[in-house]
Amino acid sequence: MPEGLEGERVDAALARMFGLTRTLAADLATEGAVTVERRTVHKGHRISAGDWLEVALPDPREAPGPAYQPDGHPQVELPVVFEDDDIVVVDKPPGVAAHASVGWTGPNVLAALAAGGRRISTSGIHERQGIVHRLDAGTSGVMTVAKSELAYTALKQAFRDRAVDKTYHALVQGLPDPVVGTIDAPIRRHPGHDYKFAVMAGGRHSVTHYQVLEAFRATSLVEVRLETGRTHQIRVHLAAVRHPCAGDPLYGGDPVLAARLGLERQWLHAVELRFDHPRTGERVRFESPYAADLQLALDRLTA
Questions:
Q1: 185 touches 240 (CB < 8 A)
Q2: Among the listed ranges 11-20, 148-157, 185-194, which one has the minimum average pLDDT value?
């Protein structure tokens, strides 16, 4: 640790050391990308003399990217499932990130919504205004964005309180045993891979419930419900029990199987989202059918 940083907050120290904006530094700490003496710390942690600080910068292949193409046009057509004055629910295609960030040149949800003339909540970190939850760039399915400040505040609290029901379907390698179970294991960034997460002591509390829906010869279709919402949580937890998502080489997916099924990304889809509407209090439910590449993979399994 360079001299002169003793007593500084982690976000301030990162900003000074690496020339980052204070917002980006705080964002990295919030995401669990910063460790002090091998322990994950929050943005307000104070640095002590002699501390060893490590920071993992986002993977350019996974991080979201610039809001617009150079010509200013939106990068992607984004199907809208539902919209009112408070929320907009989209069916996010694969290869689209949730919001803009460092190192990515692909499309993102906020850019597409803005290009369509939609006004989004201004609450939250600048690059994530209106974002109340996210899907990985390679994960497709239903996702909601807050349009009003009321919706942003209410939905962020609902996610913190675990009052939102999030259901995913995943095609995994092998047959999980038992066929219905819970994976309760802490997740943190992998110490040997900046862009990867792992089940590790000292990580953030993470709980995933699963149930096998259908078993095939070498794979199983699994329904997953999340209690917590850590980055890559489903992919990490399934890999930890030796049943990685098909098509997910980052977490142990078999490339031969992926090629046979025509997969170029993990077979993981957000099929359903349920929460109390932030203004009316009514319980609302939104669904997304499988993306075309995922359905093709299933068709090949049953052909």
A1: yes
A2: 11-20
Please count the other Cβ atoms lying within 10 Å of the Cβ belonging to residue 119: 11
Residue tagged active-site, from 136, 161, 165, 276: 136
Residue 265, class by beta-carbon neighbours within 10 Å (0-12 exposed, 13-18 middle, 19+ buried)?
buried
136 is catalytic: yes
Residue type, 131: I
* Residues across the chain: 303
The structure's pTM equals 0.76
CA distance 13 to 2: 10
What mean pLDDT value characterizes the chain? 86
pLDDT above 90 covers a percentage of the chain that reads 58
Please tell me the distance from the alpha carbon of residue 246 to that of residue 220, in angstroms, as a whole number.
9
> Which two structure tokens, joined as six digits, stand for 78?
């984004």
Instruction: Check: CB of residue 14 under 8 Å from CB of residue 2.
Output: no
Phi, psi dihedrals of residue 278, rounded to the nearest 5°: -65, -25
pLDDT of 186-206, one tens digit each? Answer: 999 888 776 789 999 989 999
Long-range pairs, 215-218, Cβ under 8 A, ≥24: 215/175, 216/301, 216/302, 217/301, 218/173, 218/174, 218/257
The answer to whether the beta carbons of residues 41 and 47 sit under 8 Å apart is no
